[in-house]
Amino acid sequence: MSLSRILPPIILGGAGFSHQVHRNPNSAQALQVLKRAFQLGLRAIDTSAYYHPSEILLGEALSHPDITSHYTRDQYLLMTKVGRITADQFDYSPAWIRQSVLRSSERLRTQYLDVVFCHDVEFVPEEEVVEAVGVLFRMVEEGHIKYVGISSYRIDILGRIAQRVQEEYSRSLDIVQNWAQLTLQNNTLAEDGLEAFKEAGVSCVCSSSPLAIGLLRSNGVPVGDLGDFHPAPRGLRLAAKEAADYVATQGDDLAALALRYSIRRAQSLSTPDFRVTTIMGITTVSELEENLATAGLVLQVSDRLRWLWNADSGSWVGVDSYRTKKDKELSLAVKNILGEWYGYCFPSPGDGWDLSTKKPKTVSA
């Protein structure tokens, strides 16, 4: 079955259970969030081996009796990533790709993975990515994986690799993932990328980081155990803070507005055969409930998220026209406040990265 037919419009992001964005991620936190997410109908999870210890914590939670006594494996989707090991370490060799997939399955305590992405492909030579995708395709045939994708901040590289994969293997990638470019601050994914993906036969696009890794909120970027890793320069951070303050004066919250914008935009770009979904980073039950309540305002959820798509009519449920009008007005105001920072793209991998060695450049004394 095409992934576009089963992938839900909202996905729970597993980076919230990592040292990058959370202080002291733990198994109790993961179990509480998953239990509540499953109760509310949110049954798709995206993580990565890089988001350590996310896979381990999720595996412990998914194997807990509170989950296994109520849900079977076929009732939820698991997506993870391979290739990126640490902030400055990558391994796209065929042997490691295979080992990483098997390790992720063991950590997540599952017999198969629904989706595996090659992680942050802009940091390695494209030919290595294409070769790694071939390994994943073989693991699909072996039953370890169901669908294969690639992830990157760089939309141009995603499109180019998707085309190369189609030419090399006479089959298409199932899905691509892009982050922080279908947001109130950056709409590049909608403006430049989707058509190239469609031409390469891709049927699903995951838009992650609707808040641009916490930039678009009132309390600043998140700081986990590994410190402040956010790529936003000071000027953009100040502009985002000004936007958050303005939205607050209008009786709203920038994070909620940004999430509504991203979800609404993703659904407007979706069709039955081409799905654009939103990955929400979640760290606590209260955050989960707030985000799903916000999503419900856009998607008009009456019960559970899995019922948002009406398969009989082949259409999404309608949106609140009054809220849409108010959100458009606020979104325009935010865009004006951001000014020159609207549409700004983070450098990835940046001038300090050596693509041939897949390592930071050595600085001469």
UniProtKB/TrEMBL annotation:
Keywords linked to the UniProt accession: Oxidoreductase
Pfam families given in the database record: Aldo_ket_red
Origin: domain of life: Eukaryota
GO cellular component assignments: cytosol
Keyword Oxidoreductase tagged: yes
GO biological process, one term: dehydro-D-arabinono-1,4-lactone biosynthetic process
InterPro entries according to UniProt: AKR (IPR020471), NAD(P)_OxRdtase_dom_sf (IPR036812), NADP_OxRdtase_dom (IPR023210)
Membrane spanning residue stretches: none
Residue ranges occupied by any NADP-dependent oxidoreductase domain in the UniProt entry: 9-299
Gene Ontology MF, one: D-arabinose 1-dehydrogenase [NAD(P)+] activity
PANTHER family registered for this protein in UniProt: GH17980P-RELATED
Protein name: NADP-dependent oxidoreductase domain-containing protein
Organism from which the protein derives: Penicillium cosmopolitanum
